[in-house]
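Annotators were shown the component list below and the corresponding predicted structure, then asked to write short factual statements about the assembly.
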Amino acid sequence: MPFHVSADEFERIAGEALNSIPEPLRARMDADNLMITVRSDTGGGDADEEGVDQHVLGYFEGGGESTFSAFGYPKRIVLMQQHIERWCRTRAELVAQVTDTVLHEVAHYFGMSHDDMRTTRLRR
Ligand SMILES: [Zn+2]
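Structure shown to annotators:
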């Protein structure tokens, strides 16, 4: 059984995960206007309407390369609430999974590849 929480509660847990990131890194993320977005609208099927596989718990949108705007698109980390909840049976598991996912995507934001992450605590 998935462990389900409200969207507000999920965002609060994601906020706590962000708070666990060391201040110098967070300052850079803030300066860059990095956003965290929670998608709680995905239901059923093997992939949702935008084709995001259920095994994808979150992703990082790098923004940047727009030919039309000097500012590019905002960079953001998207958390797939229902996908994450699917793998969790308790609140503690949910908090751990959200934290892992946020840290994983933040690592992508800082330019780390999965190979880079393998050498750190940020698996997956
Ligand atoms: Zn990744």
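Statements collected:
1. The chain has one domain: 7-118.
2. Residues 72 and 120 are 31 Å apart (CA to CA).
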